[in-house]
Amino acid sequence: MRRNLTGGHTPRVSRSSRQIMDRNSPKIAVLGAGVIGLTVVKILQEELRHADVTVISEKFKEDTVSNVAAGIFRPGLSFRGPSYEVTKRWIDKSWYFWQDILKSRDADEAGVIPVSSYIFSKENYHVTRNRLIEDIVPIYRAVDKDELKLVSEGWKYGSYFTTVKTGCDRYLPWIQRTFESKGGKIINRNVDSFTSLPKYDLVFNCTGMGAKYLCKDDDLVPIRGQVFKVKAPWLKTAFYGDYDAYIIPGQDGIATLGGVRQYDSYNTQVCRHDAAAIMERCVDLLPALKNVEIVGQRVGLRPHRVPVRVESEMIDKLKVVHCYGHGGYGVMCAPGTAIDAVQIGLDLLRSSVRSKI
Ligand SMILES: Cc1cc2nc3c(=O)[nH]c(=O)nc-3n(C[C@H](O)[C@H](O)[C@H](O)COP(=O)(O)OP(=O)(O)OC[C@H]3O[C@@H](n4cnc5c(N)ncnc54)[C@H](O)[C@@H]3O)c2cc1C
After folding, report:
1. Which of 28, 77, 222, 262 is deepest in the core (most CB within 10 A)?
2. What is the mean pLDDT of residues 40-51?
């Protein structure tokens, strides 16, 4: 028996409601073509095969914040839903979503790969643990003394865990291709208000930092990040150290070195001081990176909000489902939140179909 894409964890609309909605071919718009918008699109097309779906976005693929991310599945405690239970459910559902892709023929094209990771600290044992994922990843354990020697000197604490990583350089084009091949439409434009949209039965708002202006949401704050993309085909393991240092391998031999977390900074330019500090910390962690070939530097503003906003709103009779504010964890947690957003949207459509019967 084929499990559904979330490993049987998705609440689904009843078949009869879905058939009624399918017959009616609802017109749906998804605003935003980052990892959140396109994951909503994927789930939506699977749940509602005959829906007329349009993605409306100002930026696509390599121009999105999603494309800056390394995309590793390792949440921090700043990723928060409205309660711990919801946060954990989003994380768990996301994990099974990525596992389903990982064991499919699409894994390579979708940019999903398994990654082994070490997280070390010179100062604090607790930062090497992660209670949000220790119960779902196959391995999460403390390192032994020999493993501390894998990196440079002076590291006192460490954990090893196995996880997954999604490279948006592949994932976004993969979803977009599949979406268009199933009849999905794409419009390239900026949306400055919900009321400026043509008539849709349902709109998903997945605009990341753009939601700050579209929704006048003061709770949405950027956390600026900056990374190097380097050529390191020999690197097969991820390493984390103190002060936001991380080294994450990727497909095509391109690794991501980071990083910084600058709260409320809107600077989208590469900062040479940040660059120097990032490189110094990464080489300090893994000396083999000295003089590594740099292929690019990227800056992205993580859309941070507590809690992440997954809820519906009626705006001038338009049914809107918001899904934004994932901070530094939007790649890994896109599926869990998108599943809930789609469920909320389908419930809204179902209730309006029922009221017409
Ligand atoms: C340096 C760095 C490292 C990261 N590492 C990781 C990691 O390892 N793991 C992880 O899970 N996450 C990571 N993240 C976080 C992750 O990148 C974000 O949480 C995620 O990309 C948010 O996705 P999004 O779709 O909401 O936003 P975006 O990718 O920004 O997409 C938003 C989309 O909406 C469109 N849009 C916005 N406003 C409008 C408008 N008014 N009209 C039309 N279109 C609009 C944009 O053009 C864009 O297409 C990292 C982020 C950074 C910066």
Report:
1. 28
2. 94
